[in-house]
Amino acid sequence: LLLTTILISTIFIFLRRRRRGGLPLPPGPKGWPILGNLPQLGPKPHQTMHALSKLHGPLFRLRLGSAEVIVAASASIASEFLRTHDTNFSNRPPNSGAEHIAYNYNDLVFAPYGPRWRALRKLCALHLFSQKALEDLCYVREQEVAILARDLAGSCRPVNLGETLNVCATNALSRATIGWRVFVGKGEDVTAEEFKDMVMKVMRLAGVFNIGDFVPGLGWLDLQGVVGKMKKLHKRMDAFLDKLIGEHRKAAAGGEFAGKGLLSVMVRLQEEGEGEGGKLTDTEIKALLLNLFTAGTDTTSSTVEWALAELIRHPPLLHQAQKELDTVVGHDRLVCESDLPRLPFLSAIIKETFRLHPSTPLSLPRMASESCTINGYQIPKNATLLVNVWAIARDPAVWTAPVEFKPDRFMPGGVGAHLDVKGSDFEMIPFGAGRRICAGMSLGLRMVTFMTATLVHGFDWKLPNGVVAEKLDMEEAYGLTLQRAVPLMVVPVPRLA
What is the distance between the terminal CA atoms of the chain, rounded to a whole angstrom? Predict the structure, then answer.
């Protein structure tokens, strides 16, 4: 049976190649029979693809099983796909993560482009990510970040910074979405570690190149065990979300939290009946909450963790940022969100962190709805597009000393002074670009900046166990989110009066 499956897959690939004519396909490396280039990707595909772009150019092709995958690895090529041909690449290809984790494409991230997707995006934009929603919920973020600062100040031992930041980001988001804190507090809540574990596993599993996605005939074998892990993890996450929704409905029935949070809005819309794209289902509500609690928390905490790691490795930059904050904020209070526009060097630090450590190193995949021509090459219908965000932001043709952490490049007179991270400047697109740009970009950018400012202003930082700052491990762990391979363990030393 296995040999028959392999033979059928080989014939399918051969016939599909013979049907092509006209313009050439983009160049690319030779692959293995059946599996194509899958075995060559390694544990850090974004780095492998970066190396391949040096050999084959900024637009190249991989054959992953039976799937044609097109990789964009320069700002100009990415702009062709995500600006000029954005409409053609507004859908997602089929993948096991969307099927088995994200409620079978009923979420916002993987939903097909169309009325339902627009309705879900509009719902989030209006009630979470609009300027008015951000201002209305400013007090929530300030309260949660103040709790973060208090907990760090009271710590007398090394802390796992990423885990601590994730609790803060999750509570800020949960208050905006469901009306209360998911994590009660240190010593009172045993779910924080479990939730962080689930989120990290979701992000890592969703980023795996699953053989079954690319060689459908082998999917039933689940050779990597990925699908089995996804199904098991989905059950855990589904139970967590069911509990949240159940607690919300119980509280709402008792008159609590009436009208507070996105979940209240979704439940109300569900009760009112039909809306744009159809009536909201419980599955769609859970899928949307899953998106928010994964993409909206882990990306924030990991980016702040990377920022602080870089500043610890570069003490002069940390001191310069502290000096700016001391001048603007003083020593007798915590940073407020209203302070952020007056902190240009801190803003430069955030941009440099997004450049070197984009939370999503490879863009979420898109799919060509129709064949098109890019840079003189034919892009076949149904081809998968990956944009190497990580590689683009390290392009030596754009950036001097591209692998070095230099926030000054974003200060006046620097090469990046005119660039932002909001999808219009393709030299760095940590949130993506085009119609499928990250829906939560405005909140994510604000939260990352605010949390980083508080950590820099409120504390000096020491490394435990005699670790030397210059030797701090900066290895990456690949997933849907770019994590640190080794969690950042630090000792916070309060510096405010």
Answer: 72
CA angle, corner 200, sides to 196 and 203, nearest 5? Answer: 140
Phi, psi of 178 (to 5 degrees): -120, -5
| Residue 138 assigned to a binding site | no
pTM of the entire predicted model: 0.91
- Per residue in 400-439, pLDDT (tens digit) is 999 999 999 999 999 999 999 999 999 999 999 999 999 9
Greatest Cα pair distance in the chain: 73
What are the start-end ranges of the H helices in 314-392?
315-329, 344-356, 389-392
180 burial (CB, 10 Å; 0-12 / 13-18 / 19+) is middle
Q: Tell me the C-alpha distance between 129 and 304, whole Å.
A: 20
User: Using CA atoms, how far apart are residues 58 and 48, in angstroms rounded to an integer?
Assistant: 13
Q: What is the CATH number of domain 2-494?
A: 1.10.630.10
Which of 210, 167, 193 minimizes the C-alpha distance to 297? Answer: 167
Structure tokens at 416: 């990046």
Roughly what angle, to the nearest 10 degrees, separates helices 441-458 and 344-356?
120
Assigned token pair, 163:
């885990």
For residues 179 and 172, give the distance between their C-alpha atoms in angstroms, rounded to a whole number: 10
Residue with tokens 């952490």: 405
Name the residue ranges covered by the structural domains of the chain: 2-494
72: left (phi over 0), alpha (psi -120 to 50) or beta: beta
Q: Side chain identity at 417, as an amino acid letter?
A: A
Residues 6+ apart with CB under 8 A from 275: 119, 269
User: Using CA of residue 74, residue 79, residue 82, residue 85, what is the dihedral sign?
Assistant: negative
Give the chain's count of helices (H) and strands (E). Answer: 18, 11
Closest of 438, 415, 395 to residue 82, by C-alpha: 438
User: pLDDT digit string (tens) for 235-272?
Assistant: 999 998 898 888 878 877 776 655 568 888 888 888 77
Query: Contact at 8 Å (CB) between 126 and 435?
Result: no
Tokens found for residue 129 = 């990510």
Does residue 396 sit in helix, strand or coil? coil
